[in-house]
């Protein structure tokens, strides 16, 4: 019934469910979904003009002809083998990394993949190291697991490994261990840098030295506009301490909800133990695989050009207004986001007002911080809107910033 | 890399991950997937001949024309509104139950739906009441959550509510509370009975009296071959203490992995808090909805006829051999399963051998018991094989039983 009686049941909630429960509205977190704004720069929404509608229909027809019954029934708990093979091929093509389908566990997008790692390794109160800032969705997942978050700053080379060591040593001196280090290695979301090779090697060595794990999040790696692909932490880690999350959301479409964890084979059963409900979408996995098997490289090539143009347009729009200020504007080598350190004297309440006036959807930096702060930053996604609107909206947001400066 | 180094990481596992970890192979549980057996009576696999391949392709084409971009991007965290409306319509058509889309949370099959309820309400060590026997997949999920399981027997009227009261009183006398009562109300899996109206009313009253919740699992309700549909616990419960799980797995295809929880609206945010990763499959939800919106009733009608014939054939085959024994064979009014109390003197090790010899895939009753026992039972699924094979395989399994009697 829609009418809800007033029975109390919140005293039955689990400890994890009680986290943040005092304000239940927060549980309905604002996801990466469309708003009514003229300039939709909020969530990391993929470019709709690039969605391969005809290709998906064609793939559906071929897939149903070739393996319809298998697509409509229960599949492997670890995920459709064809998709796991495709992920391995993707790693080989783009990174020259050799993996096996046994290393891959298919999930409901990479958010689900990350949650499996937290469920498998994190008890309430366990220490976790994360970048500050980091992706707000993962912050939500870590908090729901009751993780004790230790934020470490990010600079132009990625996570500050010296600070990581300090945190690890501090925990050790308290007789505690860090359960895992969560990091976004390429075009870090939200702040933009790609972790340098030196830092990557240092982080892998730290995980071994302090007997912890690394959770490497790489949703955007193929969407590199310039610069060279560096080896992943998973590839560098000869100790088998790294789990890596990936997704088709950014190279095919987020609506297919297909992601994965890539992990040492012996870890897979532990992770799979939290994937309740019989494996993730055999039907959808097959449609996506049939399309990408034939179109992966050309489709990624197309997307790189699309997103590069959008990034350039937005950066241009922002700079036209902000170069006269001390604002710092990121210029990421790939991905979907620009991170802005607001000019000195920006009144963020005013900014919220003027940006709304200009119908620009954006995100305040505070949502990306594990331990508070961040109000002096803003994140814009250039992924969704057209090139022209990325320029116009970038300019409009920059003007809103100027209007908010005291 | 496929080569796994021997780094130790199992001392980093969470408490829940450690459950059953001494034998990691158990984590790779045998799902409802196909084996090589001649007679596939193991998992609850839907009838492949009924899969609407043409209908799915047609629905895909129409869906992409009408809302392609929306299908390929992030959707609502609660699930695609069209699917939630379809679920409400289904409840109205088959049960005359009025619900609102705000009551529905879309999940990756009903297994995922049930896991959300356990994550939301169950801490490690919390008491949960379940039927004995009950669905093995849910037993796995409850155990992974660390639930302290209290099994209550099932008779021809469903769960024994007298025994439920005894358990609730025993817990109360220990100063403990039952967090929830898990029950499969229609064609109980595996044992077959439909809970009587009287029992349903008693169970709802018990939940209120002892201040606990009910988790009502109903994956098969529409597939009723005979007898009358009774009101669900969710419909009877005016106190808002009942959550209900449903699925498209049995009326469309398990490969689409679409299920849901139906719950009081105020509970939805708490449950949604454990659905990490941006809502379940907007693309797949739309394809399924576009098909079922036009075909729901006729497709269910078709399936009822298919599964009734299969049940009849299997029961006939079993009885031909077993009527001369004291075996008890269920004759469920719907669903996918037959439950057999093996004749006195059946050697279950012998039965495993002879059934394998006859190439019959089946399940021992022991896998369905929350607190041990059950070896004297067997479950067969008649859902997957043809009518003829249900008869032949039923006969073959009955002969294997006869061969195993001392």
Features:
40% helix; homodimer; 8-stranded mixed β-sheet; 4-stranded antiparallel β-sheet; 12 helices; alpha/beta; 406 residues
Describe the structure.
2 copies of one chain form a homodimer. In chain A, helix 8 (233-236) links the parallel strand 7 and strand 8 (242-247). The N and C termini of chain A lie far apart (52 Å). The relative contact order of chain A is 0.16. Chain A contains 12 helices and 14 strands. Chain A has an 8-stranded mixed β-sheet with strand order 2-9-8-7-6-3-4-5, with helices on both faces. The longest helix of chain A is centred in the C-terminal third of the chain and has 41 residues, at 282-322. In chain A, 40% of the residues lie in helices and 15% in strands. The first copy, chain A, is α/β, with parallel strands linked by helices and 406 residues long. The interface between A and B is large, with 108 and 108 residues.
With helices defined by DSSP (H or I, 4 residues minimum), what is the helix count of chain A?
Answer: 12
Indicate the percent of residues in helices of chain A: 40-55%
The helix/strand class of chain A is alpha/beta
- Beta-strand portion of chain A reads 5-15%
Question: What's the oligomerization state?
Answer: homodimer
Neighbour order of strands in the largest sheet of chain A = 2-9-8-7-6-3-4-5
So what's the overall shape of chain A?
Answer: globular
């Amino acid at each position: 019934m829609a009418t809800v009686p007033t029975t109390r049941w919140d005293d039955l909630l689990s400890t994890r469910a009680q986290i943040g429960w005092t304000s239940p509205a927060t549980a309905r977190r604002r996801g990466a979904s469309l708003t009514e704004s003229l300039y939709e720069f909020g969530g990391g929404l993929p470019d709709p003009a690039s969605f391969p509608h005809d290709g998906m229909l064609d793939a559906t027809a071929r897939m149903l002809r070739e393996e319809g019954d298998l697509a409509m029934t229960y599949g492997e708990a670890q995920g459709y083998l064809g998709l796991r093979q495709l992920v391995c091929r993707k790693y080989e093509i783009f990174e020259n990394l050799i993996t096996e389908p046994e290393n891959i566990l298919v999930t409901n997008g990479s958010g689900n993949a990350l949650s499996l790692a937290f469920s498998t390794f994190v008890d309430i109160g366990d220490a976790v190291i994360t970048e500050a800032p980091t992706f707000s969705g993962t912050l939500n997942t870590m908090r729901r697991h009751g993780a004790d978050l230790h934020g470490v700053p990010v600079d132009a080379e990625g996570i500050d490994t010296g600070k990581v060591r300090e945190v690890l040593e501090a925990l050790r001196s308290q007789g505690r261990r860090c359960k895992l280090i969560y990091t976004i290695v390429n075009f870090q979301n939200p702040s933009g840098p790609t972790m340098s090779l030196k830092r990557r090697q240092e982080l892998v060595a730290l995980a071994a030295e302090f007997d912890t794990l690394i959770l490497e999040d790489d949703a955007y790696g193929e969407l590199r506009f310039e610069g060279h692909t560096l080896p992943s932490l998973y590839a560098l880690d000869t100790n088998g301490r790294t789990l890596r999350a990936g997704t088709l959301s950014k190279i095919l479409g987020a609506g297919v909800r297909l992601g994965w964890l890539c992990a040492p084979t012996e870890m897979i059963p532990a992770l799979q133990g939290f994937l309740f409900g019989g494996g993730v979408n055999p039907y959808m996995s097959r449609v996506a695989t049939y399309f990408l098997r034939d179109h992966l490289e050309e489709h990624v090539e197309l997307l790189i050009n699309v997103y590069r143009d959008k990034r350039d347009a937005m950066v241009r729009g922002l700079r036209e207004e902000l170069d006269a200020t001390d604002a710092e504007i990121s210029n990421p080598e790939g991905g979907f986001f620009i991170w802005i350190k607001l000019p000195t004297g920006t009144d963020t309440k005013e900014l919220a007002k003027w940006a709304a006036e200009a119908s620009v959807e954006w995100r305040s930096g505070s949502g990306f911080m594990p331990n508070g702060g961040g109000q002096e930053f803003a994140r814009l996604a250039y992924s969704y809107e057209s090139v022209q609107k990325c320029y116009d909206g970038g300019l409009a947001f920059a003007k809103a910033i100027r209007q908010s400066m005291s």
